[in-house]
Amino acid sequence: MLHSLIGRLMTFSILTLFVLMTGVGVLLERSFYASQLNAMQERLKLHSYSILSVAEYYQQQLYFPAYLQEQRFNQEKSGLYAQVVDQTFRPVWSSLSANDIPVFKTAWADQGQWMYSTVSRGNKYYLLARFGVSWSDSGKPGPVFNIMILEDLDDLSHHILSYRKTLVVLLVGLSAFILLVQYLILRWGLSPLHRVTSDLEAIQLGEKSELQGEYLTELQPLTSGLNRLIHSERSQRERYRNTMADLSHSLKTPLTVMSGIVYQQQQREKTAEANELKYQIEKMNSTIGYQLKRATSGASGLVIQKVTLLPVLQSICSAMDKVYAHKAMAIHLDLDEQLDINADENDLMEVMANLIDNACKYGRSTVEVFAQQSSDTLTIMVSDDGPGIPTAQRDLVFQRGQRLDTAEPGQGLGLSLVKEILDNYQAPLTITESSSGGACFCIKFPRV
Asked: Which of 87, 131, 355, 440 could form a disulfide linkage to 383, CB 3.0–4.6 angstroms apart?
């Protein structure tokens, strides 16, 4: 997801929205709790006033009616309780509902002072409202009493829980809607980039020659730069084509002369050397044409087709039998006759000829070529019975111009060319030790 521009923006938006909505949810929940708590305090204050309105103080005694107007005060375990205590926290009066409620000895409220606190009894929690009040008798100020009104917080907890569930549903729905809108905006806003990508793919497929049409102002420097790059690449490719054509023409003329001389010599003497020289001249002509095609073709210069592997290997082995006739090399082919591969035939010839040539060059008497096909891979192994390649030097042989044995002729370019060709096919090439102690080159072509 992070490898996509829309994915990155959406990931950042989701994280930002999560933090924002969490903060908003906490803030709204606390605001709702504070408002509910304030409403509850005001309700307890009104209950206190209603009790004070029916209370009488006579001869230093407080008198209350047996039943209060609020019915919850008259019912046991109703959740609403009232008590009056003196300065020693001794109960002076209790509502019928508070018969089994003890006096909570918290802070004392002075006359005219309201105090609120949360108290608990067992697993029950209450909101306690305490008000200091004094009655006078015959014009004399009387003692100060505290009226305590308690209400359990079960209803408040249920309201908070219900509000929290509703709030979560609303915030999640709002977040989903915002993310959907943002995704659609991003898709619409980034659609010009998708158009540029489609036009570039069309150019790669040869359907277009350049980026055409009107693009947004912000993309015009990009598209103009890409068009200049495309034109520059075509001009450079044209120069390469002309240079390679000139080189090919320059080389083919002396090769034609050499071929004619060899043909005349072959007609006179009919020797094996003349036949081999003629074969090598034809191979040089073919190689020049192949390299010219690679240099002047598209991005990779590859023409992918299905090639039967056995005839290619048999042709290479036949040539190697002649080149290394003095060593009497035995080349064994172990593969299915119908085994085929999706590759350019010249590429395949170049790769296998280099590997088999190296095996014959450094092997003592035997070269083995094995090929096997699985569900997703075609494996080709070329092994010899030579001295092998040390593990520490196996990566070195693929570098251009690097050679481990300078006694044999060569420029150290064969294996680097093989590696370059195989990289275009995404086919890894590894070196291990063969069963006879020599080198084993293993290629794994992905099946198309």
From this structure: 440
Handedness of CA 360, 362, 366, 369 (dihedral sign): negative
Query: Residue 444's beta-bridge partner residues?
Result: 379
The three-state secondary structure class of 210 is: coil
Grouping H, G, I as helix, E, B as strand and the rest as coil, residue 347 is helix
Residue 261's pLDDT is 74
Nearest to 427 by CA among 336, 302, 297: 302
Strands 330-334 and 366-373: what pairing?
parallel
Q: How would DSSP label each residue in 83-128?
A: EEE-TT--EEEE-GGGTTPPP---PPPPBT-EEEEEEEETTEEEEE
Q: Is 258 exposed, middle or buried (0-12, 13-18, 19+ CB in 10 A)?
A: middle
What is the DSSP secondary structure assignment for residue 447, as one 8-state letter?
Answer: P
DSSP for 216-235? -TTTHHHHHHHHHHHHHHHH
CB 125 within 8 A of CB 48: no
Output the pLDDT for position 178.
94
Distance in angstroms (rounded) separating the CA atoms of residues 40 and 129: 10
Q: CB under 8 Å to 62, separation ≥6 — which residues?
A: 55, 56, 84, 92, 93, 135, 145
**Is the confidence at residue 333, as pLDDT, over 90?**
yes
pLDDT in tens, 422-443: 888 889 999 998 988 899 999 9
**18-38: burial string, b at 16+ Cβ within 10 Å, e else:** eeebeeebeeeeeeebeebbe
Q: Provide the 10 A C-beta neighbour count for residue 362.
A: 19
* CA nearest neighbour of 46 among 169, 153, 149: 149
- 207-215: Cβ within 8 A, 24+ apart: none
Query: How many Å apart are CA 80 and CA 151, to the nearest integer?
Result: 5
pLDDT digits (tens, 9 = 90+) for 239-282: 776 777 777 767 766 777 777 776 676 666 666 676 777 777 77
